Amino acid sequence: MNRNSLLTHSKFERMLDWLHSDRQQAGRKYEAIRRRLTEILAGRGCHEAEDLADETIDRVVSKIDAVVKDYEGDPAYYFYGVAKRVHLEWLKKAPTPHVPPPASSDEVEREHACLEHCLARLPEEDRELILGYYSKEQREKIMNRHELARKLGIALNNLRIRVYRIRLALKDCIEDCLDRETP
């Protein structure tokens, strides 16, 4: 391990000690805080909720010495306050979405037909994965994705990578299909 990772590990350990003196309880509290951060951020419409939850935790860990010395009260509330700032920063950086003009019903039908065609061409396992990944909304979506990763026996990040690759293949297929269908 290099010096920076040792310092980070040491600070993370101090953060766990701050959460609870018993390591098992500290671990449970850490997981509960991270889960709640993700829920809060997702509830605010953040599509990068898990990444921002990690950013929040990283910021708290990086300043843990000062935090432990000065903060009084439930540590979870400190994390939530930092998450609020992280979310505001994310909102400032996030580009204003470009809203395309409404598509005609013919265009929408063509896009749906191409999507159906491309989904049918996927291997069954990939098709089920992509449909399952996008099948829920808000909090249920997060829990569903954790369950999908667990069923596949992979980490959540590996699940995201698999889905990203499937989406790329679908995107290429749909674009080809639309190009062929263009009058």
Please characterize this protein's 3D structure:
The protein has helices at 3-19, 23-43, 49-62, 64-70, 75-93, 105-121, 124-133, 138-152, 156-181. The chain has 183 residues and is an all-alpha fold. The longest helix has 26 residues, at 156-181. It folds into two domains: 3-93; 105-181, Orthogonal Bundle (Arc Repressor Mutant, subunit A). Residues 1-6 have low confidence and may be disordered.
In short:
The chain has helices spanning 3-19, 23-43, 49-62, 64-70, 75-93, 105-121, 124-133, 138-152, 156-181.
Layout: helices, strands, pairs:
Blueprint: H1 3-19, H2 23-43, H3 49-62, H4 64-70, H5 75-93, H6 105-121, H7 124-133, H8 138-152, H9 156-181
Helix pairs in contact: 1-2, 2-3, 2-5, 3-5, 6-9
Q: Give average pLDDT, whole number.
A: 87
Counting DSSP H or I runs of 4 or more residues, the number of helices is 9
Note poorly predicted spans: 1-6
Question: Helix/strand-derived class?
Answer: mainly alpha
Principal-axis shape: elongated
Helical content, roughly?
over 70%
Count of spatially separate domains: 2
Beta strands, count: 0
SSE series: HHHHHHHHH
**Main β sheet profile:** none
Oligomer: single chain
CA-CA gap between termini: 60 Å
Radius of gyration: 21 Å
**What portion of residues belong to β-strands?**
under 5%
